[in-house]
């Protein structure tokens, strides 16, 4: 048998986006007892940032968390263009998200209600 007639595989259009998701409290969310919520830094694959956000929010809801807000920081190239320092560990997690077409929660920072408001007050 030959490969004649088989279409060549198209290159993937998937990219990895860095997202920070703020979550509120929900029963069974796994956050520390006294936490009021948390920020999750995620690496999510998608053909565009909107798809990466949708997939991340859907996954976090399935994990019994309560996503409230998502801030996107773009792709690796976007972040490098902004001057962000990106270590090898972070790059490795981004590559894993791309290879597995997945969402990876890289860091979780719980909130305990004593954080300053956005205005620093």
């Amino acid at each position: 048998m030959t490969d004649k007639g088989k279409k060549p595989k198209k290159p993937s259009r998937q990219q990895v986006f860095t997202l920070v998701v703020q979550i509120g409290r929900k029963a069974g969310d796994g956050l520390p007892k006294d936490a009021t919520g948390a920020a999750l830094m995620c690496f999510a694959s998608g053909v565009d940032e909107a798809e990466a956000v949708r997939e991340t929010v859907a996954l976090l809801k399935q994990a019994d968390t309560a996503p409230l807000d998502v801030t996107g920081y773009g792709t690796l190239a976007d972040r490098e263009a902004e001057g962000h320092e990106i270590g090898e560990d972070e790059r490795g997690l981004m590559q894993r998200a791309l290879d597995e077409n997945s969402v990876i929660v890289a860091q979780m920072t719980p909130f305990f209600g004593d954080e300053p408001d956005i205005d620093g007050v």
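Residues 11 and 108 are 33 Å apart (CA to CA). Residues 49-62 form the longest helix (14 residues).
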